[in-house]
UniProtKB/TrEMBL annotation:
PANTHER family: ARYLSULFATASE FAMILY MEMBER, ENDO-4-O-SULFATASE. Residues 1-28 form the signal peptide. GO terms for molecular function: choline-sulfatase activity. It comes from Gimesia maris. Residues 32-314 form the Sulfatase N-terminal domain. Pfam families: Sulfatase. This is Choline-sulfatase. The gene is betC_8. The lineage of its organism: Bacteria, Pseudomonadati, Planctomycetota, Planctomycetia, Planctomycetales. Keywords: Calcium, Hydrolase, Metal-binding, Signal.
């Protein structure tokens, strides 16, 4: 071959490799897709978190591919406030959604920046499959909506969520996208089997209640078994969804978040500020970015999802967001100056469950602040008093309570009529049985946490710091326990204006 022919052959090859390198660089520079998977009413009852009864192979595999966060929390353990928190990146008292959307609680301002509006400004296509459950809905202008109902009866099978996701993937073409998929499991009713899933349901003989529940009877075990059956069905749905992501060729450039929206609906779970209500699973997978199989133990929050997504999308993180970018925690590199405290809060979420509590925990200790001590905790009543109009089937009946230990009885009494403060050593007492708030050996810990909680409330302009705001809110809630407001088209809670004005003046 002549020198001329060698040059003629090499030139196109050089161009080929150059074009390949440019294409690779372009792909690397493309903003990632963002997939947010949300399940209902479940804590970290997953195989990858060490739960002995959970059958969750697909979520376990996602954890193996990504990073599992051992200490992840929601700021409020009821659906609407929790969802508003991760969608806006702000605490409930900052965004206004301090109760259930179905009871006319809402954001202070429709214009509140959120996952949808901020990513749309970055050129993202946006989609939602499943319920939103935050008011007003038009604050979240998704480009694609499907299965708008909560689907608690599970008439829509888990296959429908994957099918709708496939439709969304097909329409995005070369545009980056954000898709939130919200599964109905494991919300009550705990349905043993829906559309043939799970194929082999657990029974009461196969399980025991979570250790923080404090009650173990055959009746409750049946509820627990069906809770785990819901978790198995959820896991199937996640597997089908991730399979559609693979078929769309999008897995390699997708940042995946998986969370539960709050803890399970058992005593001292959903609605409370105990660990059973606030602690959730959080798994993050991002090929090429996450260190496979990593477990991080830092205190993390669902408030961190939005800052992380914005950073991944190449957008500056607004200073007013309460969360932090998780990117430094996605590998095994040491991280300095991470957060010291996690905040929790509840209002009870609707009038018949009204009760105000705040919590603050560090790596070891947990403070619960009850600003109206000695008054009836209507949230606890919904689990412990069968005469409560909203008593839940997964609560503890009078017959169940005849079987409990003296320690559990004391804990339930404290929950029903809380003292001013509760303090728990989570290292020695992870289920929060022993209140140390009046133990003189823990005075310094208690004082430190009270001061830290007050400082956080001041910094975030929490209206409930002002006793006048707190009492006005409770009075209005208790005066509306007949719930006639639900049929009043133009009804508006007064806090939506008074709290917003108070925050503006601080």
């Amino acid at each position: 071959m002549t020198q001329h022919s060698l040059k003629s052959t090499c030139l196109p090859l050089s161009l080929f490799f150059l074009l390949g390198m440019l294409t690779h660089s372009a792909l690397a520079a493309k903003p990632p897709n963002i997939l947010l998977i949300v399940s209902e009413d479940n804590g970290p009852e997953l195989g990858c978190y060490g739960d002995p009864y959970a059958k969750t192979p697909h979520l376990d595999q996602l954890a193996k591919q990504g990073v599992r966060f051992e200490n992840a929390f929601v700021p409020y353990s009821v659906c609407s406030p929790s969802r508003a928190c991760f969608l806006t990146g702000k605490y409930p008292h900052q965004n206004g959604q301090i109760g259930l959307a179905t009871h006319k609680f809402a954001l202070y301002q429709k214009e509140t920046p959120n996952f949808v509006t901020l990513l749309k400004e970055q050129g993202y296509q946006t989609g939602l499959i499943g319920k939103l459950h935050v008011n007003p809905e038009d604050a979240f202008p998704f480009d694609f909506r499907a299965i708008r109902s909560a689907n608690f009866n599970r008439r829509e099978p888990v296959t429908a969520y994957a099918s709708q996701a496939a439709k969304f993937f097909a329409r995005t073409k070369d545009q980056p996208w954000f898709l939130s998929v919200n599964f109905p499991d494991a919300h009550l009713p705990f349905i043993q089997q829906a559309n043939g899933r799970p194929a082999h349901p657990l029974t009461a003989d196969d399980v025991k209640p979570m250790p923080w529940v404090g009650v173990d009877t055959p009746r409750l075990r049946k509820q627990v078994a069906n809770y785990y059956n819901c978790m198995a069905r959820l896991d199937t749905g996640v597997g089908l969804l991730l399979n559609e992501l693979d078929k769309a060729g999008a897995t390699e450039n997708t940042l995946i978040f998986y969370i539960g929206d709050h803890g399970a609906q058992f005593p001292r779970g959903k609605g409370s500020v105990y660990e059973g209500g606030l602690r959730v699973p959080l798994i993050v997978s991002w090929p090429g970015k996450t260190h496979p199989g990593m477990v991080r133990k830092e205190l993390t929050s669902t408030l961190d999802l939005l800052p992380t997504a914005l950073a991944a999308a190449g957008r500056e993180i607004p200073e007013e967001l309460a969360g932090r970018d998780l990117t430094p925690l996605l590998t095994d590199a040491p991280v300095k100056n991470w957060r010291d405290y996690i905040f929790g809060f509840t209002t009870g979420s609707f009038p018949r469950n009204c009760y105000i509590q705040h919590s603050l925990r560090d790596e070891r200790y947990k403070l619960i602040s009850n600003p109206r001590p000695g008054t009836e905790n209507l949230i606890a009543d919904s689990y412990l008093d069968e005469s409560h109009l909203h008593f839940v089937i997964s609560g503890a009946t009078a017959a169940d309570q005849k079987t409990i230990s003296p320690q559990t009885k004391q804990v339930f009494t404290r929950w029903s009529q809380p003292p001013r403060y509760e303090l728990y050593d989570l290292q020695q007492d992870p289920c929060e049985w022993n209140n140390l708030a009046e133990d003189p050996d823990y005075t310094m810990v208690k004082t430190r946490l009270i001061n830290a909680l007050t400082k956080l409330q001041q910094q975030t302009r929490d209206p409930f710091l002002d006793p006048a705001n707190l009492e006005a809110f409770v009075k209005e809630q208790l005066n509306n326990r007949d719930m006639k407001y639900r049929k009043q088209k133009d009804f508006r809670w007064s806090y939506l204006d008074s709290f917003a004005n108070w925050r503006a003046e601080q």
